[in-house]
Structures are given as C-alpha cells and as structure tokens.
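Bug #77: duplicate submission created two jobs. Keeping one. Sequence:
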Amino acid sequence: MEYWNAIAIRFGDSRGSLGRMRVNATFSESHAADSAACLWNAIDLTPVIADNGPSLLDFTVSLVERFCRDVRSRLVKMVDRKCKQE
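Kept job's structure:
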C-alpha cells in the first residue's frame, strides 16, 4: 500500500485515496456498504504494451473469459452446497 500512497502523493492526492482504492478500503462507512452515484474501475494494460504482448482484443477477451469461469465455478459450488443441505 505504501507504493500506491506514494503514487497518489506524486499526483497531488496527499490523502492517499489511490492507496485506499488499491486495498478496496471504504471511503465512507466502516461498518456498512458505501453508496455511490458514480463508480470507476481500471485495468492494468501493461501486458498489451509489452513486446510480443497480446492485442487489446485478445487481452480483454481473456479477462472476460476468466471472469466467466470464476462466476461459473462459484455458482456450481453454491448450487452443490444448496443441494447437499436439502
């Protein structure tokens, strides 16, 4: 987290909000879900600009496919647990 706070300070954010975002820390209530009118997300595109890196399309598709596998795996586990309880 020190790295992200250093980056935040370098770009003029002395409160270190980039560091808190990096560790998924809350910005509002510590014991409740935060509400927001707007959210943003970022993806590290370093592999795309690396020598012999994937195209932006291939990189993005691989992330979406990985997300789909993760969701499927979690749903299968949840359904299996529910069936075993019944």
